[in-house]
Specification:
InterPro entries: DUF5717_C, DUF5717_N. The structure is a single chain. With 1097 residues, this protein is an alpha+beta fold. 45% of the residues lie in helices and 19% in strands. Among the domains are: 111 residues, Immunoglobulins (Immunoglobulin-like); 68 residues, no CATH class; 96 residues, Immunoglobulin-like (Sandwich), CATH 2.60.40.2310; 235 residues, Serine Threonine Protein Phosphatase 5, Tetratricopeptide repeat (Alpha Horseshoe), CATH 1.25.40; 102 residues, Immunoglobulin-like (Sandwich), CATH 2.60.40; 64 residues, no CATH class; 81 residues, Immunoglobulin-like (Sandwich). It is built from 42 helices and 35 strands. The strands form 9 sheets. Strands 29, 30, 31, 33, 34 and 35 form a 6-stranded antiparallel sheet that branches. It has a 5-stranded mixed sheet with strand order 2-9-8-4-6. It is elongated. The two termini are 51 Å apart. The model has no long low-confidence stretch (mean pLDDT 89).
Length: 1097
């Protein structure tokens, strides 16, 4: 660089600027984590010239083996320090190459490569790569998922992804876990199944029949499927399958319908497909033996209707004759269905007897074919016939014989209720209800449950209620029957109610009896018994609320009634103020759970105006309760009302503020997916601090402080689900007043910072992490302080940091002065810095010198005049650099017609006035600039001297002729005519010309090989008389081409003054003959005297 400047300062511009070629113009650096990358790039030129220069990197991580280079080709070796950078980091930078062939920029892209795991399908570096691997080979993806190498893939993924996997390793690493992981990180959608149709119908199956069902899945992945068959006639070959068994997206299920398990008529079965996310049902119906009489149960139905109506008749709801007519009609229908049935015939007679239609009954019995010894005869039917005849006779020996016969038969068939009923009706020993009840209770042990049996027992209690001494299974069945058929009398109902109130334990059967009794007789006593019984049974479900409400409205005095009233009350369905008696009861404290107590207080707050003095009486305990619940982080809709009313900023303590923040971030999560056990929350830092049991009715309440928190569901089977199941979240308490209160507290106290405290920048940290990892203002203060502490000592890394901050417009006078002294980089960057230094009036001559030097070395000058002027006016200008710059730009001006600012020529003129040594081209440029222009008088002498000097050095250009006549005469240019040619560098030029005078013209062109006046500028001088004309053209030849210019002409100036030898001769050519003769004589005399006076030695 110094040699080139020295040559330029002497006006030596002979060395050509090489055309530089780069092997690459955009370098891509793939760097492993924590590695130092080694690379290089090459410069060359097609000529034999050497390339010399320097390289400036835009990154502090780039270091060169040698910052300077020389050669052809020239190889520049560098390293990129990737230590401390996270994979995925990308830096776009440049290499600024300043060489003798110009200034160039090579862009580079440094990419820190992520860690990877090599599989048989290639590199896996990200979750996206892992998803692609799972699509291609799920089993290999599963092996990778189970290995600890998988951590390398997730190391630089989203933290939520990393922490999800980290926790899943503690739960399960099976295929289902991998499926949940992929769904949770949004790399695939959840698998759902679709059935082909809703069901299948088979008819008259006589042998095992196979059926098929196609199930389809919506996407790839793994999911276990359990197949459950409901119906013994259905058998599936594989009760458990998975999506691995699918061919494409379809799997065909085979099942077999087994006829040995079918009954006549319609057989219903279901295939259920149970997955972790859903249950699908496929109905299978088999219609077997279609000729089977589906009306086979009609006789039972008709008999049941007859008995039911008879019970209604006994209860007084149906008249006896009406019942007899209805029963007779139904019996006629039954006898049509089975005309041979003797039992139907006898039952018709019995109906007539009950209805006092004796004659009709007799007629039936007389026509009945009775034969006690007939083979196959039902003994009960025979006894039934005898019983009816005895009923007609009423009393006498026949009745005794019948009773004896029935008694004997009963001894053989003691489980027959019909026989016992005949005995109870005929035997006078059982007229007492006590005796009848005793026998009936014994019969109950045989499993007798007929309606008429219960009716007979009930009639005993109806006749004498005091027979009810206990409430065993038999008694409850009888009472339930009586209540169900509305047979219960009021007397018996009250007796039962009183007796039930004395029971120590709750009974569902007794509650149902009392419930039915109360519908018949709405007596306070019965209501009291019902509520007492419910409280004994601790019945606190919402369905019991109406009973407690009725008791409260009736103002019954029952222990714990008001507690159970509040417990069973449906808060969502409750409207309006609670009864005043409730508030009076709980005025001095309560044992309600917090939800019910909160509802009680919230109702009082909501209807404060109606409450009157009660509100004031409750206020103290309500305030205490509110703060207590806040500290426990409880939140319900009722507590929300209390918090808004009683929680004020003045009463907040740090502990209460912590609790309020938790409540403000409380969410209720619910899902319709069954069998969920609990809800887990993976916090932002990956730790599970919340594991909340899930209730299908109430959901679960969790606290979500950050949007990065993840909800995970755990099922009763131990499976964990991420986003594969649909769930809802509802924020329970979002009040802007309290949120703002918490925010202010956080700002003032510095708690709850979501972000970790940012690391303070140091020079060691900056070297590792880079400037972008820190607050640029903090880095700026660090650099400024370091410069002052080190007394402006040079440090390469400090210079880099200061300039990076300068690009971010973070600077002050300290860092600017430091950069002015030491920064060296791309020319455009240094010029930006120079402009800011000018604005801050900071001395910039040092960086100005570096700018001019670099521009001259690279021969890449642009808008540098102001920089040079500032440098020239400083006290530390280097004369070689000054000469080199003025010489180079003057050459560009004269040879290349470059536009320059006037200040450059003013400086050249000043240097000439001070007799400083300058290249001749500077003086030629000065003469060219002022030729034909008005200039100050003080330049007159300077330009005159320069013109004289240039002519003495035979460096003459046509623009000299624009100066004063006296100066031109002095340098003998006044009578000269010049032609000028600007050739291409390296070309050879010949001039072809011929003279023409008046009517005489030379026949051919003269040829003259021209020598350049300066570099590729050619000048030819002629002395032409007024009647002479020169025709000429130039021929330019290079190694590759030859150019011939257009022909042009030039003539002498007829207005040239008549002084000098050539002036006088030129005048003579225009005189008349007489005058010309006298002038020629005078010229001859002067020439002779001159030869005598001015002799040459």
């Amino acid at each position: 660089m110094k040699n080139k400047i020295q040559k330029f300062s002497k006006g030596d511009f002979q060395s050509l600027r090489p055309d530089v070629i780069f092997d690459e113009t955009n370098l891509v650096l793939i760097i492993g984590e924590g590695e130092v990358y080694r690379g290089s790039f090459t410069l060359k030129t097609n000529s034999d010239q050497m390339i010399r220069g320097l390289v400036y990197p835009s990154s502090s991580r780039v270091h060169f083996k040698d910052q300077g280079f020389e050669g052809n080709p020239a190889k520049v070796e560098f390293t990129y320090d990737g230590r401390g950078l996270r994979p995925g980091h990308v830096e776009e930078g440049t290499f600024t190459v300043v060489c003798n062939g110009g200034e160039y920029e090579l862009s580079f892209t440094a990419i820190i490569e992520k860690p990877y795991v090599m599989t048989s399908y290639g590199k896996v570096q990200s979750t996206d790569d892992f998803r692609k691997l799972a699509i291609k080979d799920y089993s290999e993806a599963g092996r990778l998922f189970r290995s600890r190498e998988f951590y390398e893939i997730l190391k630089y993924e989203n933290e939520r992804t990393f922490y999800l996997y980290d926790n899943m390793r503690k739960w399960s690493l099976g295929e289902q876990a991998m499926e949940e992981f992929l769904v949770g990180i949004k790399q695939k959608e959840c698998i759902f199944l679709t059935l082909q149709g809703e069901g299948m119908l088979f008819e008259d199956i006589t042998e095992p029949t196979k059926g098929t069902l196609a199930i389809m899945k919506n996407t790839w992945g793994y999911m276990p499927i359990r197949i459950e068959a409901e119906g013994a006639f259905i058998k599936v070959s594989r009760p458990e399958i998975s999506t691995d068994d699918f061919v494409g997206n379809v799997y065909e299920i085979e099942y077999v319908v087994r006829p040995e398990y079918l009954h006549a008529g319609r057989n219903y079965g279901v295939l259920r497909f149970v997955t972790p996310y859903e249950i699908l049902s496929y109905e299978i119906e088999v219609l077997q033996n279609q000729e089977y009489d589906e009306n086979r149960r009609v006789p039972e139905l008709l008999m049941a209707q007859i008995i039911k109506e008879y019970v209604g008749c006994m209860a007084g709801r149906i008249e006896l004759n009406r019942w007899v007519d209805s029963a007779t009609e139904k019996m006629a229908a039954l006898r049509k269905l089975n005309p041979q049935s003797e039992m139907y015939q006898l039952r018709q007679a019995h109906i007539y007897l009950i209805g006092n239609r004796i004659e009709e009954a007799k007629w039936i019995l007389e026509n009945y074919n009775y034969n006690r010894f007939a083979i196959g005869k039902d003994p009960i039917t025979n006894c039934y016939y005898l019983f009816l005849t005895a009923m007609i006779r009423g009393k006498g020996s026949h009745v005794d014989r019948v009773l004896d016969e029935i008694g004997k038969t009963y001894m053989r068939h003691q489980d027959s209720w019909e026989l016992l009923n005949m005995i109870l009706t005929l035997d006078t020993r059982y007229k007492s209800p006590y005796k009848r009840l005793e026998v009936l209770e014994q019969q109950y042990e045989y499993g007798t449950h007929e309606v008429l049996f219960y009716l007979q027992a009930y009639l005993c209690y109806k006749e004498k209620p005091t027979l009810l001494k206990k409430l065993g299974d038999f008694e409850l069945q009888i009472l339930n029957f009586a209540a169900k058929y509305r047979l219960m009398t009021k007397e018996l109902a009250l007796y039962v109610s009183n007796f039930a109130s004395q029971q120590k334990n709750y009974s569902d059967a007794l509650f149902r009896i009392l419930e039915r009794i109360y519908k018949m007789y709405s007596e306070p006593m019965i209501l009291n018994t019902i509520c007492t019984l419910l409280i004994k049974g601790n019945k606190n479900q919402k369905r019991y609320y109406p009973w407690y409400q009725k008791a409260v409205d009736a103002e019954l005095k029952i222990a714990q009634l008001y507690e159970y009233y509040m417990i069973t009350l449906d808060e969502e369905g409750a409207h309006g103020p609670l009864p005043k008696s409730i508030f009076l009861y709980f005025m001095h404290g309560n044992t309600l759970n917090y939800k019910k107590a909160a509802f009680l207080y919230a109702n009082l707050v909501t209807y404060e105006e109606q409450a009157g003095d009660l509100y004031l009486s409750y206020r103290e305990q309500m305030v205490a309760f509110t703060w207590e619940q806040l500290m426990k982080r409880h939140i319900t809709e009722s507590l929300r009302i209390l918090y808004k009313r009683f929680c004020t900023e003045e009463d907040m303590t740090p502990e209460r503020m912590e609790a309020m923040r938790d409540v403000c971030f409380a969410y209720k999560v619910t899902t319709k997916v069954p069998n969920m056990n609990c809800v887990l929350v993976i916090e932002k830092d990956g730790v599970i601090r919340q594991r909340v049991p899930y209730d299908e009715d109430g959901g679960a309440i969790i606290f979500l402080y950050d949007k990065e928190s993840r909800i995970v569901w755990e099922s009763l089977e131990g499976r964990h689900y991420t986003d594969s199941i649909v769930y809802e979240t509802k924020r329970l308490f979002y009040e802007p007043r309290f949120v703002e209160m918490c925010r202010k507290y956080a700002v003032s106290s510095g708690v709850w910072e979501q972000e970790d405290e940012r690391e303070k920048p140091t020079f060691d940290n900056l070297k590792v992490n880079g400037i972008d990892a820190y607050d640029e203002r903090e880095v700026f203060r660090l650099c400024s302080r370091r410069i002052r502490e080190d007394n402006y000592e040079e440090d390469e890394f400090l210079s880099y940091l200061c300039f990076k901050l300068f690009q971010k417009e973070q600077y002050d006078k300290v860092t600017l002065m430091y950069l002015a002294s030491y920064y060296c980089g791309a020319t455009r960057d240094m010029k930006k810095l120079w402009k800011v230094l000018q604005e801050y009036e900071i001395p910039s001559y040092k960086i100005g010198e570096r700018i001019i030097t670099q521009m001259l070395f690279s021969e890449n000058l642009f808008q540098e005049e102001s920089v040079f002027e500032d440098y020239y006016l400083s006290d530390s200008v280097y004369f070689r650099l000054k000469q080199a710059y003025l010489g180079y730009v003057s050459r560009e001006y004269v040879v290349g017609d470059r536009m320059l600012k006037p200040v450059v020529f003013e400086i050249i003129a000043r240097e000439c006035a001070q007799k400083e040594d300058l290249p001749d081209i500077c003086k030629a440029a000065l003469l060219k600039y002022y030729a034909g222009k008005q200039y100050p008088e003080e330049l007159d002498e300077i330009l005159h001297c320069v013109l004289r000097e240039m002519c003495e050095k035979q460096l003459v250009f046509p623009f000299y002729l624009a100066y004063q006549e006296e100066w031109l005469r002095e340098v003998q240019l006044y009578d000269k005519t010049m032609i000028f040619y600007h050739a291409k560098p390296g070309s050879r030029v010949k001039l072809y010309y011929k003279m023409r005078q008046e009517n005489r013209e030379e026949l051919g062109y003269r040829e003259e090989s021209m020598m350049p006046m300066y570099e590729n500028l050619y000048v030819k001088q002629f002395v032409l008389f007024a009647d002479e004309i020169v025709s000429y053209y130039f021929q330019e030849k290079s190694d590759t081409e030859m150019t011939v210019t257009e022909k042009e002409t030039i003539s002498g100036d007829g207005d040239t003054a008549k002084a000098g030898r050539y002036g006088k001769l030129n005048s003579m050519t225009q005189m008349r003959p007489a005058t010309r003769r006298q002038a020629m004589m005078t010229y001859e005399e002067e020439q002779r005297l001159a030869d005598q006076l001015f002799q040459m030695y």
